[in-house]
Specification:
Low-confidence stretches: 1-8, 232-245, 268-278
Helix content: under 10%
Largest sheet: 9 strands, mixed
Radius of gyration: 24 Å
Structural class: mainly beta
Distance between the termini: 56 Å
Number of helices: 2
Number of strands: 20
Mean pLDDT: 81
């Protein structure tokens, strides 16, 4: 084993030495771009938008905050008539209420943003439709079944989430609940508190793989049955699965932009040595001339 480690160390050192080359950082060609982030949802009472700029990896001007508070951020339902978002200093993001800019399922929307010294950015997305997919939780009493390849030889209960995928559509799903989170803001002369909706998604197990998001790839129109929860520490007593403490749950329908963005968020490979041999993974973006995300999702209350 020690010999293998030494050989690997020599190989890694040689690999790194072979990759060394002189680079003129001053002429590396880095350009700061606007970063725009927004998710539309018809069931929410407001649309929040974040605008910032990218940071240079090799530059010397990274002392300023990337958050932009006085830019121009606008939404449109037809690409011709635009509604400007107002920056909310309390929430530190741009805001458009549902009364100012209603969002409906199936609608296609446009966004654009500008700020002096940067190239204008824009994007388009379509809000997915929510469907009555016959969603249900199925609680199963079991003993000795497999979880992550290991048998569990004691009485417990498994909870499965089950629904039928909508045929002919490219669908992505998540399950979770939303709650009002108090945000406390401190000032020199006092404190202020406001509430905003936050989402917690449930971990699911799909083919022995833990995940937060489910795609219908390879199962279009089929019944999707996903392991939702495993109670491994309390004996099953015949009661139905309950979740009163965490409030109302929802089935989320994600558009392809949100799904691809979530599935390409970089994973931390450091400490595993794999980063020496992998190409960098780029986070998905659909922002023209910039970075970020303009996506949409719909929510269906789970009965």
């Amino acid at each position: 084993m020690r010999k293998n480690i030494i050989v690997f160390g020599i190989f890694a050192a040689a690999l790194l030495a072979g990759c060394v080359d002189d680079v003129n950082i001053e002429n590396y060609g880095e350009t700061r771009k606007l970063v725009l982030y927004c998710r539309l949802c018809p069931q929410m009472d407001s649309t929040y938008i974040l605008l910032s700029h990218s940071q240079l990896i090799y530059g010397q001007d990274n002392t300023d905050s990337p958050n932009i508070t006085d830019g121009t951020v606008e939404l449109s339902a037809d690409g011709s008539h635009w509604v400007r978002a107002t920056y909310d200093s309390l929430r530190q993001r741009y805001l458009i209420t549902r009364e100012e800019f209603p969002v409906v399922e199936g609608g296609t929307y446009h966004i654009r943003a500008s700020y002096p010294g940067f190239e204008d950015v824009s994007s388009t997305c379509t809000v997915p439709l929510s469907h009555d997919v016959g969603f249900r939780f199925d609680t199963v009493a079991t003993d000795g079944d497999l979880h992550w390849g290991e048998p569990y030889y004691w009485p417990h209960k498994d909870v499965y989430a089950e629904w039928r995928d909508v045929a002919g559509e490219e669908n992505a799903y998540a399950i979770g609940h939303r709650y009002l989170l108090p945000i406390h803001v401190m000032y020199d002369d006092g404190e202020d508190t406001f509430y905003e909706w936050r989402f917690d998604l449930d971990w699911l197990t799909d083919d022995n793989t833990d995940c937060l998001y489910i795609s219908d790839k390879g199962r279009d129109g089929q019944v999707i049955r996903i392991l939702h929860d495993v109670d491994l520490y309390n004996e099953y007593e015949g009661e139905g699965w309950k979740d009163d403490e965490e409030g109302q749950r929802y089935l989320f329908f994600l558009d392809r932009n949100c799904y691809k963005y979530e599935m390409t968020l970089p994973n931390d490979d450091f400490g595993m040595l794999t980063f020496l041999f992998l190409e960098p993974e780029h986070t998905y973006t659909n922002i023209k001339n910039g970075f970020g995300l303009f996506g949409a999702f719909s929510m269906l209350e789970i009965p």
